Amino acid sequence: MIDRRAANKDFEEFDWDETTKSLILSSFFWGYVFTQIPAGQMAQRFGPKVLLLFSIGICSGLAVLTPICAHVGGAKAVIGLRVVQGLSQGFVFPSTHTMLSRWAPASERGRLATLSYAGAQFGTVIMLAISGVLASSSMGWPSIFYISGAVGILWSVAWFFYGSNSPADYRGIAPEEREFIENTIGASTSGRRIVTPWVAILTSAPMIALTIAHCSHNWGFWTLLTEMPSFMKEVLEKDIKKNAVLSSLPYLVMWILSFVFSPLSDFLINRQYLSRVVSRKLFNTIGLWVPMAALLGLAFVPKGESDLAIVLLTLAVGINSATYLGFQVNHIDLAPNHAGTMMGITNCAANIMSIIAPLIVGQVINDPTDPIQWRRVFYIAAGVYFFGNLTFIIFGKADIQTWNEPESPIPSGNDAEAVRNTNNTTNNNENHSD
Fold first, then answer.
1. What are 274-325's pLDDT values in tens digits?
2. Residue 135 contacts by C-beta under 8 Å, 6 or more apart in sequence?
3. C-alpha dist (Å) from residue 41 to 176, 195, 345
4. How many beta carbons lie within 10 A of that of residue 73, not counting itself?
5. Residue whose C-alpha is closest to residue 96's, from 281, 344, 262, 349
6. What is the DSSP string of 332-368?
7. CB 118 within 8 A of CB 259
8. By C-alpha distance, which of 344, 321, 260 is closest to 120?
C-alpha cells in the first residue's frame, strides 16, 4: 500500500510516515483488548456460536472494505476500521474457549484445542506466502483484503449452518458420542445460570500464574513478530520482508510442530505416564524456555551470519507452539464453566503486553544497526519468558477448582447429585479415548 516498487504500480500508493504506519498497525489492538472480558461473559450467557458468527463475519466484511476506506478516508478511516475489526475479533478467543469447554473431552482436550488455535498460524503462513504474489498480480494489493475477507465470509456462512453451541444442540451427533462428551465434561450444568465468581478467579494463584504465563508468551511472541524484520535487515543485512518463504517459515514450523506436540501430550496423559499438571508444565517449559535460549543465541549471532539467525528465529517461533498444551488450554483444566471469561481476562492482559513490548523496543533501540542495543531487547524478552514460565511451574495447577461450580440457582434432587458427581465422572472418563 505504501510502496509501488513492491507491488503492481497500477494501484494507489499512500504516503504514510512511520508514525502513521505504527498507528494503523496498533489500532487493531485498541479494540481487541477492550472486548476480551465482555466476550467471555457473553459467550457463557448467549452461547459461542452466534458470537463467532458475527465476530468473523463483521471482521471479514470490513477487510473487504479496507481498500475503499483507504481511498476515501485515508489513514484515519483505516484506523477507525481496524479499531472496529479489533472489537469484533476480541470475541474469537473467549468464544473458542467456551466452545472447547463444551465440546472437548478431557482425553482429547489438547488435540482439539491445538486444532482450533493452530488455525491462526496456518492463516499466517498462507497469507504471508501469497500476499506478495497477490500484490504484484493484476489484481494488486487490494486483492489481499478481498480474498482474505471473502474466505472469512464463506466460513461464516458454513458456520451458520453447521456450528453448534454444545453437543445437546447439534442434531448430527451420534447419541453415543454425545453421551460420552457430556459425561466427561459434566453436562449437568448445561442450561443453568452460572454466576461468575470474580473474586475467586482474580485471587486464585493458579489463575494468576496462568495470566503471567500468557503475558510473557505474548511479550516474546510479539517482539519477534514485529521487530525481527528490522533486526534481520539492519544488523544481518537481509530483508526477509521481501522473501515470502523466509517470512512464513517460522509460522509454518510452528503450525507443523503443534500437530507433533498435541498427540504426544494427550498420549502421555491418557497412558498416565505424566499427570495432567506435569504435562502442562512440561510443554509450557518447552514453549517458553527453548525460545528463551534461542533469543539469547540471537543476541550473539555475528554480523553476516544470517542463515544461523534464521535458524534461531525459526526455532524461537516454531517451538512456541508447545504452549498450546501448556497455559493456553489450562483455563479449561481449572474451570470449564468459566473458561471463556478466564480466556478473556488473560488474553486482555496478554495483549496489553503485545502493545507495550514494541514500544519498549522503540525506547531501547536508537540505532537499529547497533547489535549491542538489540542484545538488550533479546535479554528483556528472554527474561520475561523465564519469569513467566517459572511462575507457571511453581503455582500452576491443572485440576478443577472449587469455584468452577455454579452457585445460583442451587440444584436439588437428581440435579444436585449429578453436580456432586461431576468431578468424579470427569476423572473416570479422562483416560477414555476414541
1. 999 999 999 999 999 999 999 999 888 877 677 888 889 889 889 999 999 9
2. 6, 7, 8, 141, 143, 144
3. 30, 10, 10
4. 13
5. 344
6. HHH-GGGHHHHHHHHHHHHHHHHHHHHHHHHHH-SST
7. yes
8. 321
